[in-house]
Design goal:
This protein is α/β, with parallel strands linked by helices and 175 residues long. Helices cover 40% and strands 18% of the residues. The chain contains 6 helices and 6 strands; from the N terminus they run E-H-H-E-H-E-H-E-H-E-E-H. Helix 3 runs parallel beside helix 4 and helix 5 packs antiparallel against helix 6 (144-165).
Length: 175
Amino acid sequence: MSHHHEKKERTVPFTAAWITLSDKGAAGEREDKSGPLIGEMLTEAGYDVVEGILIPDGVEELSKQLIRLADDVKVNLVLTTGGTGFSPRDLTPEATIAVCDRMTPGIAEAIRAYSMTKTPTAMLSRAAAGMRKQTLIINLPGSPKAVRECLEFLMYPLEHGLEIMLGQTGECARS
């Protein structure tokens, strides 16, 4: 099996944005390390990161930002970090599901399955993933360590999925 992980030079890079959901972060009580890490990793992978946003937990503001990024800014990819657990304010999946036209449960399942190899508490993740028009939205965990692991795991299939979503490649491009 030879699928190559070296960076293909794209004529037009995928555009991306990240959103951190954190009450403490938004209140200035905790430094957001996860959002900037997503930005850094995507930039290294050749994405054009157009925005990074830090907002409090909850549905309303996140829904508004996701709709704006998909409909107005038209970014190809939005990655969220935080708000996917059991606390009453963890409503990132609800906002994501509410704004998506089509869900992509395989992505969320794969992230959970992979994270389960690191820690059993990964089963408590309620993270969702889906598409709104031509924008793929994926909920990542909140911790920088988990963000790094999950994003490294996602990079290759993610690029393939975005190409299909944007009509840049056929469905079964298995190398």
